[in-house]
Amino acid sequence: MAEAKIKIQLISSPIGSPEKHKKIVRALGLNKMNQTVERPDTPGFRGMAKKVPHLLRVVE
After folding, report:
1. d(CA 2, CA 25)
2. Number of domains composing the chain
3. Eight-class DSSP state of 15
């Protein structure tokens, strides 16, 4: 069975955000605006994305 993946895109700059938010964005592997990364669909990655919904877009 193939592992489910989610695509996460950085849609807003973390400049001016709290340091915790910047660390979350960096931990997801996002560096540049409009960059998209593919991560496993696990509760850990889902939780990280839910912490900064104003900066990210999650594509199922």
Report:
1. 26
2. 1
3. T
Q: What's the predicted TM-score (pTM) here? A: 0.88
SS3 53: coil
Residue-wise pLDDT for 11-45, tens only, equals 999 999 999 999 999 999 999 999 999 999 999 99
CATH of the domain at 34: 3.30.1390.20
Residues 6+ apart with CB under 8 A from 2: none
In order of 2, 27, 39, the CA distances from 58 in angstroms are 20, 15, 10
Sign of CA dihedral 19, 23, 58, 12: positive
Query: Phi then psi for 2, rounded to 5 degrees?
Result: -75, 145
Q: Which amino acid is at 37?
A: V
Which residues span the domain enclosing 30? 5-59
